[in-house]
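For the sake of transparency, this paper describes our internal protein records without simplification. The remainder of this section carries one protein's record, kept here as part of the documentation:
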Amino acid sequence: MVQSITRVLLFSCLYPAIAGFWVSASAGQRYLSPCSVVAGKTGDTLYIAEFDAQQIAVYDVTGCKVSSVISLAGGPVDLAACPDRSRLYVTLGGSAGKVCEIDLNTQEVVGCAGVGHTPGGVVISPDCKSLYVCNQFDNNVSVVDISAHKEVSRIPVLREPVAAAVRPDGKFLYVANFLPAGAADGGYTAAVVSVIDTTANKVINNIQLPNGSTGLRGICVSADGRYVYATHILGRYQMPTTQLERGWMNTNALSVIDSSGQKLVNTVLLDDIDLGAANPWGVACTQDGKYICVTHSGSHELSVIDRKGLHDKLAKAARGQVSSPSQSALSYPSDVPNDLAFLVGFRRRIKLGGNGPRGLAVVGTKVFAAEYFSDSLGVVEINPEKLPDVKSIPLGPEKKMTVERKGEMLFHNASMCFQQWQSCASCHPGQARSDAMNWDLLNDGMGNPRNSKSLLLSHKTPPVMITGVRDRAETAVRSGIKYIQFVVRPDDDAVAMDEYLKSLEPVQSPYLKGGGLSESAKRGKDIFDEAGCARCHPAPLYTDLKKYDVGTGKGRDTGRKFDTPTLVEVWRTGPYLYDGRAVTIKEVLTKYNPADKHGKTSALNEQQINDLVEFVLSQ
């Protein structure tokens, strides 16, 4: 359904007209939550995905106003337009996700194709015949025939694909995997960029990013097709969390990939020595190839990087010919991901007026950023020969902020952190879940890293933390502000974050069939009871809120009692056990279940184990 709107520009670009058009929208008091933006063919129109409002705003750049909205049957996550800008494609989230085609002449949805669980990043092939859609919780990429509005293939990738970019010649698709896959107790934990051969429709390479890479959000290919750029967090998880200075815990990065050699060139830090640039999200190159632009959703900034300067310096570093203000000697390739001054001289940091910038579009020398929490559009003139020009344009009337919305905003806000190195979402991304890494948080001593936990249901399942050292989630939230963010804040902030975390709802498991248990999971449910699993993991929270020694402790943790975790959304929270040593639930029930202390599974045959695993992962 399309709403056609005629509006009058009452004031200026900063105060767009809202009379009449916004009456129905404001009646429900829904936030807009803009998250992605695509420019029209001539750049005088923008299409903005507004997730919570379940619509696409059509924005008139010349008139500085929303001219119409295209209503959708769900929250739009990402947008892509065919080269002639006659058609727009939008992914709609959910367990039964879909990608829809919109005729931009009529502004009507003309067809949809079913894809996977929680579809996000969408990319159009250069010949405009195929779509590639990232299915985050199915761990694969859909290939969709555009003319038939039909999914024709799925390509498995490693873990939670959220964004993709295709090379201009169409030969290769680059996919950003959100989280690391594999165990977390070794010396190397990092997410990867998967490379897909689009002719064979299969992964031909997984490009490993530096140790600690997690939370990949954005990816793009340069116009000449030579390089791929990916944004992510670079966690220093092997350090005890005793301070924040100089990126001691989390730094924020841009990885550069050689598309011809299909290999990592290097990773540069987007922070400064004494000021973090938290939670990099969207990334795009200007059409002339001069600049790389990155939004920082945690510190509410835009980085504008001189592309030639970056590659010249990376080439010199490869030859050992670079010195840096933050280094006492020459920088070599291995030093670059630790050099907080590497971008000095050819990167500008521009503070935005809105809150939580995510997706972005570049038109000439202007960058347009979707500012999620302020329901606004950031507009930045990046021409270095002009004075800085930054606007934040409201996309609708200001709405009263609920305590839950305030808590969500604060949870993602690195400005409240000392030197803005990180937000709560840095270690708990994806709506307060886990970053799949181990951290030494000092709450039960030093030198014993614990696997990062999802915060879903944390207020309903005390005590909290893996060893249960916090009596309840409210205590943990306040300790996190003080000892992880290293700040003192009004208690109202902690209350708001409490309410946000309480409002989180479980995502439907991808292991369910038609919303219910599969036949295998139904058999597994009986085994779950017979093996004694239900004694400590009773429904509906699947935890008895107690601590036990289940024989998994090792070293100084031998004999230690651990909090019984909820199994709700356990399919999403790997790796498992307190130190992340178990890659799968099957390993938890077999390889790491000494003396049947963690359920009586040693006598089960292979089929019974698989059925039990299927039931557990269906929660």
The first strand starts at residue 2 and ends at 4. Residues 416 and 487 are 7 Å apart (CA to CA).
